[in-house]
Design brief:
7-stranded parallel beta sheet; about 425 residues; Rossmann fold; single chain; alpha/beta
Length: about 425
C-alpha cells in the first residue's frame, strides 16, 4: 500500500516533472532529447549478455570508471549498459567510455516504465552507484530475481535521518538489494540500519580513479603560460559561493595570484561570468582564451577538465563547503597532488575530508574571511605546500583497492563468481 501511494504521487507529479524538464532545457536543450527513454521506451537493440550500471550524473559516472573497466575485464563477453538521469552525465559517459558502453536514461520510477526497461534490456545483474534507491525499480528487480548491488555506497547522517522518516517505503527497497559495498564503516552502519542486507565496507572507488594523463599534461601546459605567477583554484563552486570567494580574495590582497573559478554546474557559467564582469574584474573564459598577465580571474567554463585545473593550481578550495551544501569530493585534487582547503560544511564527504585533513593533505577554514587569509598564508609558504603535495601521494596510496573488493562482492552477490 505504501508503494502504491508513492506511485500515485509520482503520477500526480507528472506535470511538475515536465515543467522541471522544460525549465532545465532553457539552459540545457538536451533535457528534451531522448524523452521516450525516461518512460522506458528504447530504440536501441539490447545485446544478449548485458551488465547494467546506473550512475545518476557526472560525478557518479566518472567515479564508476575503475569499476566499469573492471567489469568489462572480468566479464569480457558482456556489454555494459550505463544509465543516468542527466545530459551532462551522458556527455561524461561518452567522454570517458566512448563506444565501449551503451548509454540510456533510466526511466522515472513508474511501475510500468521500470518493467519496460527491464523487459527491453534484460540485464544479468545491475550495479547502482552510491545511493540510488528507487522503490518500484528494486521491487521489480526482486520479483524477477535480478541481482542488484549498491556500489560505492555512502549515506550521511542527515540523509539517513531523511530515509528513516520514510522507512515503510525505503526499507523494503534497501532490503531488496542483493549486496551493498559501503565506502566507510559509518556508511555501512547507517545503510544496515535502514534495512540493507549483506553490507561490506569496500572503500571509495574515487581513490582508484587515475587522472587522465592528457588532462594532467594540459594543466602543466597552462602552468607554463603563467610563468612564476601563483594560481589558486576554487573548484565546483555552488550558487552563492562565488561572491563570497571574490570578497575574501579582495580582502586579503591575494588578488596578485590568478584565481581560477570553476562552477559546479555548467548552466551557471554565463551567470558567473556576468557577475564577475559586473564587479569590474578582469575575467577570461576557458572556452575563449588562456589567461594573460592582466587576467585576474580565469573562468573554467569547460567540462571534463577538472584534473587539468587541479594540475594547474598551487592550491585548491573545494566548493559546496562554504555554505551548508555538504561540499564536493576532494579525492581528485589529492590524486593530482594539489593541496586542498575546505569550508565548514563537508557532510556529504565527511570521512574522506576528515581523513585528508588528518593526513595533512587538506586544511579546513571556518569562514570566507578565513579562506582568504589561509590562501594568502599558504601561497607565501612554499615549504608547507610542498609537504601537502607529498602527503597527497601517500594518502591516495593508502586508500586504494576499493575496485577489487567491490568486484569480488558483485561476483558473489550476482552468483557469477565461477562463470
Amino acid at each position: 500500500m505504501v508503494r502504491f501511494l508513492y506511485s500515485l504521487i509520482l503520477y500526480l507529479a507528472a506535470p511538475a516533472i515536465w515543467l522541471r524538464l522544460l525549465w532545465r532545457s532553457r539552459r540545457q536543450p538536451a533535457y528534451l532529447q531522448c524523452l521516450p527513454e525516461r518512460y522506458g521506451f528504447y530504440a536501441q537493440a539490447a545485446p544478449s549478455k548485458l551488465i547494467w550500471v546506473h550512475a545518476v550524473s557526472v560525478g557518479e559516472t566518472r567515479a564508476a570508471q575503475p569499476l566499469i573497466e573492471g567489469l568489462m575485464a572480468r566479464w569480457p563477453e558482456h556489454r555494459v549498459l550505463l544509465t543516468g538521469m542527466t545530459p551532462t552525465g551522458r556527455d561524461a559517459g561518452a567522454q570517458v567510455y566512448g563506444e565501449r558502453v551503451l548509454q540510456a536514461y533510466l526511466p522515472y520510477d513508474y511501475p510500468v516504465a521500470v518493467q519496460r526497461f527491464l523487459d527491453h534490456f534484460k540485464p544479468e545483474f545491475g550495479v547502482l552507484m552510491e545511493t540510488e534507491i528507487w522503490p518500484n525499480l528494486l521491487a521489480a528487480a526482486k520479483a524477477r530475481q535480478l541481482p542488484v548491488i549498491l556500489a560505492n555506497a555512502r549515506l550521511s547522517a542527515r540523509s539517513a535521518r531523511g530515509y528513516g522518516r520514510l522507512a515503510s517505503l525505503v526499507g523494503p527497497a534497501f532490503a531488496a538489494l542483493r549486496g551493498v559495498a559501503a565506502q566507510t564503516a559509518n556508511d555501512a552502519e547507517r545503510l544496515a540500519g535502514l534495512g540493507a542486507q549483506r553490507v561490506e565496507v569496500c572503500g571509495n572507488l574515487k581513490f582508484d580513479v587515475v587522472p587522465a594523463p592528457e588532462k594532467v599534461c594540459l594543466g602543466r601546459q597552462w602552468r607554463a603560460t603563467v610563468g612564476q605567477r601563483q594560481v589558486w583554484l576554487a573548484a565546483s563552486t555552488r550558487e552563492g559561493e562565488e561572491v563570497l570567494i571574490i570578497e575574501a580574495w579582495r580582502a586579503v590582497g591575494a588578488s596578485e595570484a590568478l584565481l581560477v573559478l570553476v562552477p559546479r554546474h555548467p548552466q551557471r557559467f554565463d551567470e558567473v561570468a556576468a557577475m564577475l564582469a559586473g564587479q569590474g574584474i578582469a575575467v577570461r573564459r576557458r572556452s575563449e582564451s588562456l589567461p594573460d598577465a592582466e587576467t585576474q580571474v580565469w573562468l573554467g567554463d569547460s567540462m571534463g577538465e577538472m584534473a587539468a585545473y587541479f594540475s594547474f593550481a598551487d592550491l585548491a578550495f573545494i566548493g559546496g563547503s562554504l555554505l551548508p551544501l555538504g561540499g564536493q569530493n576532494l579525492i581528485e585534487a589529492a590524486a593530482c597532488g594539489c593541496p586542498v582547503l575546505v569550508g565548514p560544511h563537508t557532510f556529504n564527504f565527511l570521512q574522506a575530508t576528515e581523513d585528508a585533513i588528518a593526513a595533512g593533505v587538506a586544511r579546513r577554514v571556518e569562514s570566507p574571511q578565513r579562506l582568504g587569509s589561509e590562501v594568502a598564508r599558504l601561497l607565501r609558504g612554499e615549504d608547507e605546500l610542498a609537504a601537502m603535495r607529498a602527503a597527497a601521494g601517500a594518502f591516495m596510496h593508502a586508500h586504494q583497492g576499493a575496485t577489487q573488493r567491490m568486484l569480488a562482492l558483485i561476483a558473489r552477490c550476482s552468483d557469477r563468481a565461477a562463470r
